[in-house]
TrEMBL record:
Organism: Phascolomyces articulosus
Domain (Orn/DAP/Arg decarboxylase 2 C-terminal) ranges: 311-403
Active site: 376
Name by which UniProt lists this protein: Pyridoxal-dependent decarboxylase
Lineage: Eukaryota, Fungi, Fungi incertae sedis, Mucoromycota, Mucoromycotina
Domain of life according to the entry: Eukaryota
Coiled coil location: none
UniProt xrefs under SUPFAM superfamilies: Alanine racemase C-terminal domain-like, PLP-binding barrel
Domain Orn/DAP/Arg decarboxylase 2 N-terminal: 52-287
Keywords in alphabetical order: Lyase, Pyridoxal phosphate
One GO term of the biological process aspect: putrescine biosynthetic process from arginine, via ornithine
Cofactor or coenzyme needed: pyridoxal 5'-phosphate
Keyword Plastid set for record: no
The family this protein is said to belong to: Belongs to the Orn/Lys/Arg decarboxylase class-II family.
Location of N6-(pyridoxal phosphate)lysine modifications: 75
Length: 429
């Protein structure tokens, strides 16, 4: 499917492209809510997805890391529209489950462009990939090797190694990746079981803040590559994982800085073009492509947290410090986004009918506030540390860079729907 066809497909899904700019689409949505074929309604949170941002991220990747094939980590945002769009650009996919693999195969993506990266796969999912002959997958334990031997002995295996992820927002090494001192045992078992190890992979952690983590990880991968070769495995794949920041992150370890370390590291340590190099960017592709719009359902004056004791409870009667209650929350889009307070840069979208998208508001006009999610749970707090001007019920907020690990973890707890997405194509390239 070409990208023009993807856009036509979006229209036939009932979403359609709502203009060329995020600000324009938001305004239209708030003033004349788009309801045809969806139930996006005027008082619901919604996302604006920009297809052009996906394309511009793809082009930037190709320019900075030409040797590394991106396999989009679809877990970060399985939006079918984004997935189709990326597939049409030629991007591969990193999948964690049968449902994700089915989604990708149904789009007609070649099996060679899919890697199954869950180190502890459900046996029935393994049976499925065996039937589909989708061979590329990762492992990091003896138990997984025995399972693979039982169910899909011809799989092409990629050993996931533990790397230093202490400088990343979401550390993955505490859960996945074999320490180098255990690699030999695993290689030896794979040899005894006559399994087929073809590569090495790692993940430096999501939202990586230290570009040098990539150099260190590639160095470790080289060591394991050589070790595996000495066992007689024909090593042909290096998978450099994810961790790359979205374009909305302009300070610290930007994608450009990570690529400036990773690209040369791969060329230096894996000079042979016989080694296929892939990566698994998730948030890099979708993070900045989605903006989340949030309505204020109500407010009340702040309570001083440590004084919630029935005898001494006191409200900040005269202050402008408010508790705002919005229409999405921790059990909705924010469950994972709350793990990274630096990314929770919630701003004013509409105040008293005036639009502020993309505009800065004077710091003097802002007051500390807390933002609470839509369910009745007192754990449903989105931010305890935001500064906003005084807002009212009916005003709106927005969060840029909201495409990764956001609505994908949302539940319908308390009967609240998962926000819908409207699309634009800002044609920025
Ligand atoms: C195995 C694997 N690959 C890739 C990713 C994507 O990471 P990121 O979104 O940081 O690029 C993840 C995220 O959890 C992952 O677990």
């Amino acid at each position: 499917m070409s990208n023009t066809e993807v856009q036509q497909d979006i229209a036939s899904d009932g979403y359609s492209i709502q203009g060329k700019s995020i600000g324009e689409a938001i305004k239209r949505q708030l003033e004349t809510p788009f309801v045809t074929g969806t139930d996006v309604e005027w008082d619901r949170p919604f996302y604006v997805g920009d297809l052009a941002e996906l394309r511009s991220q793809y082009l930037k990747w190709k320019a900075r890391l030409p040797r590394i094939e991106p396999f989009f980590a679809i877990k970060s945002n399985p939006d079918p529209t984004a997935a189709k769009y990326l597939a049409a650009l030629g991007v591969g996919f990193d999948c964690a489950s049968q449902a994700e693999i089915e989604q990708v195969l149904d789009m007609g993506v070649d099996k060679d462009r899919i890697i199954y990266t869950h180190p502890y796969k459900n046996p029935s999912f393994l049976q499925y990939v065996a039937q589909q002959e989708t061979p590329l997958m990762t492992f990091d334990s003896e138990s997984e090797l025995h399972k693979i031997k039982r169910i899909y002995p011809n799989a092409k295996l990629v050993i996931r190694i533990l790397v230093d992820d202490k400088d990343s927002v979401i550390r993955l090494s505490r859960k996945s990746g074999v320490p180098l001192y255990e690699v030999e045992e695993l290689l030896s078992l794979a040899k005894d079981l006559e399994l087929n190890i073809v590569g090495v992979c790692f993940h430096v952690g999501s939202g990586c803040k230290n570009p040098n983590s990539y150099y260190d990880a590639v160095l470790r991968a080289r060591q394991v590559f050589d070790q595996a070769k000495s066992f007689g495995f024909k090593m042909e794949l290096l998978n450099v994982g994810g961790g790359f920041n979205e374009s909305g992150i302009t300070e610290g370890a930007t994608f450009e800085k990570a690529a400036a370390v990773l690209g040369p590291a791969v060329d230096e340590l894996f000079p042979s073009n016989d080694v296929r190099v892939i990566g698994e960017p998730g948030r890099y592709f979708v993070g900045s492509a989605y903006t989340l719009c949030l309505g204020i359902m109500g407010r009340r004056r702040a309570i001083i947290e440590n004084e919630i004791d029935m005898d001494v409870i006191k409200k900040e009667k005269e202050s402008n410090n408010y508790m705002y209650y919005i229409n999405d929350g921790y059990f909705g889009s924010f469950g994972m986004m709350c793990l990274d307070p630096d990314r929770l840069n919630i701003k004013v979208l509409r105040k008293n009918g005036e639009y502020f998208y993309g505009k800065e508001i004077n710091e003097d006009e802002k007051y500390p506030c807390t933002i609470w999610g839509t369910t009745c749970s007192s754990y449903d707090c989105v931010s305890k540390d935001t500064k906003l001007p005084v807002l009212n019920e009916g005003d709106w907020l927005y969060l840029s860079n909201a495409g990764a690990y956001s609505y994908v973890v949302a539940s319908t707890f308390n009967g609240f729907d998962i926000p819908k997405i409207i699309y634009i194509n800002s044609d920025k390239q």
